[in-house]
Design goal:
CATH topology of the domain at 1-72 and 184-241 in chain B: Rossmann fold
Radius of gyration of chain C: 22 Å
Shape of chain C: globular
Number of strands of chain B: 10
Order of helices and strands of chain C: HHEHEHEHEEHEHEHEHEHEHHHEEEE
Structural class of chain C: alpha/beta
Largest sheet of chain B: 6 strands, mixed
CATH class of the domain at 1-72 and 184-241 in chain B: Alpha Beta
Shape of chain B: globular
Oligomer: heterotrimer
Order of helices and strands of chain B: EEEHEEHEHHHHEHEHEEHHH
CATH topology of the largest domain in chain C: Rossmann fold
Low-confidence stretches of chain C: 18-39
Strand order of the largest sheet of chain B: 6-7-8-3-9-10
Chains: A mainly alpha (about 300), B alpha/beta (about 240), C alpha/beta (about 400)
Largest sheet of chain C: 5 strands, parallel
Largest interface: A-C, 56 and 49 residues
Helix content of chain B: 25-40%
Number of domains of chain C: 2
Radius of gyration of chain B: 18 Å
CATH architecture of the largest domain in chain C: 3-Layer(aba) Sandwich
Strand content of chain B: 25-35%
Distance between the termini of chain C: 72 Å
Mean pLDDT of chain C: 86
Bound molecules: adenosine-5'-triphosphate, magnesium ion
Helix content of chain C: 40-55%
């Protein structure tokens, strides 16, 4: 055993943590997008991940679509579900307050879970890894190609969003809406459309996360809550509404979890991760990277 | 250009405008003066579509536009420079301006951008700076510039001189006068009646949600009540003038 | 006020949606069972299963098999000429819901209750049945459920027997270092305690003892730690899909130790989900999963093959061990009613004295001292070969 073995273990913990955290980060980004557009925390976010995984498996195994097409079907259909959710449950509320809307999203999560149970039953949804089973040896650690794919998906999503929000007019309008809704309407931006777009985007990203993770974690109709919880922790950890921070915070959370399981005790890994989160929030209530200088207030 | 008939508007049960009628002719600059809380901002917000009126009608040319949303009003050529500027603070000056041209995002807008930079050269220097870090005067220029990016035929301005040093306020009014020459109609709300009546062709005086006086700038400036209430002259002084 | 109203409205929608889902999913066994036995004065039996919720994969097949058995017995004219009505309740593996369900069944004057599906719920309702004097035949594994109780029985193999079978095998193969892995839910924690307690008796050293949340998606950290401890055997104890994930992770990391799972692995979907990684894993289970591999002289074979065929044809689904537990429980009650009177005291007395009852879980020999009726030979060591459950060749 000796020294070499130890470093290899450390690498294994780190890489496992990165892969785990990549999923948390993607879920956190979904939280952020809707939070920025509406000021609410969408507690049905984890359900989008569950639906994404379920639809991908269904499209691949039942409709015999190739993996890429199945993922596309999942992302598009869940994005449409996100839009429908906004149109049917969020928009019609006549006097919206943050609290009512958050409660609606909780109700939404029940509905999605119930619907998944109706459609797919209680059975486990699973599929083969996209790029084969054989593990890859990396820096002394062994990791599956699917884990690496999850990480790269996160990176691609993060850069795509950076481009979208930084350089496209649609992305800029969404941001404008979150900074100042009245002003955005005055320049001709339809705030309702932006909120809808936020739900579509956030649901689509959640679905993509579900699609790439399903060969690793499998999916059941009631898996959404766990993804939602961990993703929410990552979003708060990084500072709600801040996407690059969510990437870092999500991965950190995954690494903390993995290292505590490895070096301290797997009994306490979730407690330790939660403890670190609470500590950060105690010292920095706006999260690791939450900014106070350009603090924004979103009314809805 | 703009015709407002018997407009009643407010917030929930609070009626802030009680049957206001006024008009703005093409190419004209009209000012609305009134004390704090008299309903000036309410009028402009209603015209911009932010508030739905309870009663009355609004016409643009021959088209009725009474209950259009703000998004549609911009497309009808009406742009509001809101009270307190309402910029997208964390975004750059340039992004603020580009978003001003949101309704024209499919046609090129670089021409308009150059025109705005021509009117307010300082904005060109600051184009990459976050709007929230500009000085008050620069922010007001940006707010006007952003509204102009939609190429409005009617510009609604809510207290553009608020909180600005007199020099800067005068600069901004000089620019507004230039704009008027390029055929943009304007409805200007001001506390600073001196500046407003000097720049405008005509004016209305509003008190507790009702128009109490109207006339061309010259006659309003010489009206004793206006002088006493809005031009800051004492009773005796006004009588003597 | 408006907020309160919209809140109530939303909760109502959510409730309808989830209830709707639940009702659809459980295939309304209650309603159909009632329709089939419209004749007057039926024998009323209660059943409580986790038909929906986190342990639905236990309760759903249990409810299915019960429905099938009720149809069968009524088609044959019922018991003593009276139709049989089984009132099925869904407790969603929630202890409060389970207690409420049993309360309702008691008010319906049922003669006996089968279920609940989970150990937690069974522990929660056992005292109620004990106090009321109504026989309860639980479908959960924990041996403690029946300890010191007069009215409570159970049909699944005992979890301590499962541990003993695994350790017997480990010892027989000359392995000495064991690593434990378990989920943090009741099932995992119970198994972990038994595994820890029995290791010294077998002279085994526990070199690692790791846990995970049943909903966790990755156990490579735990397995990396275990791998470094170089055990001869790994025993993984959980009922969640984590069973399949652990196998995949172990394969990913190139873990070479022999992996054992609990009897909870006896479920085809987890086997399929683990794919290649499941090959060679060993676990003790009832004989139902390997029915056709049994020698013809095995007393259970006829029952197991027959029940599996009927179940799979009716529900177009793989037979599960848990359906077997419910079958045994209800069959005991039916038999008691047939041979004595459909009366609470008679049923209890009959089951307690029953010897040589051939069920799916084994050949049961009940006694006042043993309300589980099974010995550890009721378990078979199974393994996975070419994606199928099969008996472990000696
Ligand atoms: N959002 C609101 N809700 C309720 N009442 C409002 C709201 N905004 C303005 N009011 C009321 O409507 C009336 C007119 O307000 P308005 O803002 O139009 O005045 P103003 O003439 O623009 O004043 P100022 O010169 O101070 O800007 C006031 O009595 C004000 O209190
Ligand atoms: Mg005002």
């Amino acid at each position: 055993m000796g020294h070499h073995f130890q470093t290899a273990d450390l690498m294994q913990y780190l890489l496992s943590g990165v892969a785990l955290g990549s999923i948390y980060a993607m879920v956190a980004i979904g939280f952020n997008i809707i939070y920025n557009a509406t000021g609410i925390v969408n507690l049905a976010q984890g359900e989008f991940v569950m639906l994404g995984g379920m639809v991908t498996v269904w499209a691949h195994n039942r409709l015999s679509l190739p993996v890429a097409a199945a993922v596309l079907v999942a992302v598009v259909s869940v994005a449409l579900i996100g839009i429908a959710f906004e149109r049917l449950a969020i928009r019609p509320v006549r006097k919206p307050t943050v609290l009512t809307l958050v409660i609606i999203t909780i109700a939404g999560s029940f509905v999605f879970r119930g619907a998944a149970l109706l459609v797919w039953g209680r059975s486990l949804s699973w599929m083969e890894p996209f790029l084969g089973e054989a593990p890859v040896h990396l820096l002394g650690a062994r990791i599956t190609r699917q884990h690496i794919l999850v990480f790269f998906t996160l990176i691609v999503v993060a850069f795509a969003l950076m481009f979208f929000f930084g350089y496209t007019i649609a992305g800029k309008s969404m941001r404008a809406c979150s900074y100042n809704r009245t002003a955005a309407r005055l320049v001709g931006i339809n705030d309702r459309t932006m909120v809808m777009l936020a739900f579509a985007l956030s649901a689509g990203i959640g679905a993509l996360a579900g699609a790439v993770v399903v060969p690793i974690s499998y999916m059941e109709y009631d898996n959404g809550a766990m993804f939602g919880l961990k993703g929410f922790a990552a979003a708060v950890f990084g500072g709600l509404g801040h996407n690059p921070a969510a990437v870092v915070a999500g991965i950190l959370l995954g690494i903390i979890e993995s290292l505590s399981a490895g070096f301290i005790s797997s009994d306490y890994k979730d407690a330790i991760a939660l403890g670190v989160l609470l500590l950060v929030l105690f010292v920095r209530p706006r999260g690791l990277f939450g900014r106070t200088d350009l603090g924004r207030l979103t009314e809805f | 250009m703009l015709r407002v008939e018997n407009l009643t508007s407010g917030y929930g049960r609070i009626v802030a405008l009680k049957g206001v009628s006024l008009h703005v002719n093409p190419g004209e600059m009209v000012t609305l003066i009134g004390a704090n809380g008299s309903g000036k901002s309410t009028l402009l917000s209603t015209l911009a579509g932010l508030i739905r009126p309870m009663n009355g009608k609004v016409f643009l040319g021959n088209r009725e536009v009474t209950r259009l949303s703000p998004e549609k009003m911009v497309r009808q050529g009406v742009a509001l420079v809101p009270e307190g500027r309402q910029l997208f603070a964390p975004m750059s000056v340039e992004d603020n301006l580009i978003l001003g041209a949101y309704t024209r995002r499919r046609d090129g807008q670089s021409g308009t951008l150059d025109e705005v930079f021509g009117l307010f050269p300082i904005l060109r220097e600051r184009r990459a700076q976050p709007a929230g870090t500009l000085s008050g005067g620069e922010q007001q220029m940006l707010a006007i510039g952003r509204a102009l990016m939609s190429r409005p035929s009617l510009l609604l301005l809510d207290e553009p001189s608020m909180g600005l040093a007199p020099r800067i306020a005068q600069d901004i009014f000089a620019t507004l006068s230039d704009l008027k020459r390029s055929d943009t109609s304007m409805l200007l709300v001001e506390q600073n009646a001196h500046l407003a009546l000097r720049a405008a062709d005509r004016g209305y005086v509003i008190e507790t949600g009702q128009i109490v006086l109207e006339g061309d700038s010259e006659s309003l400036r010489s009206n004793r009540d206006v002088q006493r209430a809005y031009l800051g002259r004492g009773y005796q002084e006004a009588w003597d003038a | 006020m408006r907020y309160v109203k919209s809140f109530a409205w939303l909760m109502a929608i959510a409730l309808v949606a989830t209830l709707g889902a639940g009702a659809f999913a459980q295939d309304a066994p209650e309603a159909e069972a009632k329709a089939a036995t419209a004749a007057a004065d039926p024998i009323k039996i209660g059943a409580v299963f986790a038909i929906t919720g986190k342990a639905a994969w236990l309760g759903a097949p249990e409810a299915n098999v019960v429905k099938m058995m009720v149809e069968d017995i009524n088609a044959k004219g019922g018991i003593h000429g009276r139709p049989v009505e089984v009132i099925v309740k869904d407790d969603q593996a929630d202890e409060t819901a389970s207690r409420n369900a049993v309360g309702e069944l008691l008010r319906e004057n049922v003669v006996a209750i089968v279920g609940p599906s989970t150990s937690g719920c069974s522990m929660a309702v056992a005292p109620m049945c004990e106090e009321e004097g109504v026989p309860l035949v639980s479908c959960a594994a924990l041996a403690k459920i029946v300890e010191g109780r007069e009215w409570v029985f159970k049909t699944p193999q005992r979890d301590d027997h499962v541990v003993e079978r695994i350790y017997d095998y480990v010892k027989e193969k000359g392995m000495t270092k064991v690593a434990l892995m378990s989920s943090t839910d009741g099932f995992g924690a119970g198994g972990r305690a038994t595994l820890q307690a029995k290791a010294p008796e077998y002279g085994l050293e526990i070199v690692a003892d790791e846990t995970y949340d049943p909903k966790d998606t990755d156990m490579t950290a735990q397995l990396t730690k275990i791998k470094a401890a170089a055990p001869d055997a790994i025993v993984n104890w959980t009922i969640a899909p984590a069973q399949s994930i652990v196998l995949k992770n172990a394969k990913q990391l190139g873990v070479e130790a022999q992996i054992f799972q609990s009897h909870g692995f006896g479920n085809y979907q987890y086997l399929a989900a683990a794919g290649d990684a499941a090959e060679g894993v060993i676990f003790p289970a009832g004989r139902i999963l390997a029915a056709k591999d049994l020698p013809d002289d095995n007393p259970q074979k006829a029952l197991l093959v027959d029940l599996t065929e009927k179940y799979e044809a009716k529900y177009n689904d793989k037979m599960s061990t848990f359906a077997g537990h419910a079958y045994d429980a209800l069959q005991l009650v039916f038999e008691a009613c047939q041979n004595k009177e459909p009366d609470r005291q008679d049923i209890r007395d009959y089951i307690e004295e029953r010897q040589g009852f051939v069920g799916t879980g084994g050949v049961f020999n009940f006694s006042p001292e043993d309300h589980t009726g099974l010995q550890k030979d009721s378990l078979e060591m199974l393994t996975v070969k070419d994606g199928q459950f099969t008996t472990l060749a000696k």
